[in-house]
Amino acid sequence: MPRTSKRALAQDVLNALPDAQQAVTYLAENGQDTLARAVETVTKLAQDAAEATARATQRQENLDQSYSLKVTAEHRQHINTVVEKGAKEITPAVHKRLQMFCKGTWTPDKPVRARRGTAPEKVFVNVRIPDELATEVDRIGKDPARVAERGGYELGLRQVAIAALETEFRMPKTRKKSAKP
After folding, report:
1. Cα–Cα dist 78/172, whole Å
2. What pLDDT is stored for residue 1 in this prediction?
3. Are 125 and 71 in contact, with CB atoms under 8 Å apart?
4. Per-residue pLDDT for 177 more than 90?
5. CA 67, CA 34: separation in Å to the nearest integer?
6. What is the full DSSP assignment across 106-145?
7. What is the pLDDT of residue 4?
8. With pLDDT > 90 as the criterion, what percentage of the chain qualifies?
9. Cα 98 vs. chain centroid, distance in angstroms?
10. Which CATH number fits domain 64-168: 1.10.260, 2.60.40, 1.10.1220, 1.10.10?
């Protein structure tokens, strides 16, 4: 069955290069110099094209999707402060929690919705997440067995990622001042 994807075809070309180079040697040894040069030229062009296709495919696979996660302005400021101090980095911290979620070793709490008009102002924190990880988190977040384990609530990728931010970059508790008598 012929391979139709560019990546598969590029790999087939790269796999065939040793045979093509043997053919060039055979032709040259048997007095077919013109034919040997022609095969060598075509082989080199095919190799260059296959390597370029493989590099382009790898670059495309390495691209991570950027997700905008809504958090409170106060929380984003806290996250930025922690990052500026060098204590943590956003993307690795979120990836760690997402992987824990996929393995079943961490489960975010059920998201709490504020009543209409009472939620604090939200701002965005951008995080890059590999497509494969994002797809897995989304699949697990909606998996009926895992939903049942969580108590019946589905989770989307953004909800899990926001919970990961909240867990990894916990806001310090503020003390309420007590009134003095």
Report:
1. 9
2. 40
3. yes
4. no
5. 56
6. --PPPPPPPPTT-SPPEEEEEEEEEHHHHHHHHHHHH-HH
7. 57
8. 58
9. 11
10. 1.10.1220
Main-chain dihedrals φ then ψ at residue 160, nearest 5 degrees: -70, -40
Better-predicted residue by pLDDT, 7 or 163: 163
Crossing angle of helices 73-84 and 157-168, in 10° steps, is: 60
* Domain ranges within the chain, ordered by starting residue: 7-59, 64-168
Q: How far is CA 9 from the centre of its chain?
A: 25
1-27 mean pLDDT: 80
- Smallest Cα–Cα separation from 16: which of 59, 47, 62, 56? 47
Residue 172 has pLDDT above 90, yes or no: no
Q: Is 60 exceeded by the pLDDT of residue 181?
A: no
Which two three-digit tokens encode residue 21? 């180079």
**What DSSP state is assigned to residue 67?**
E
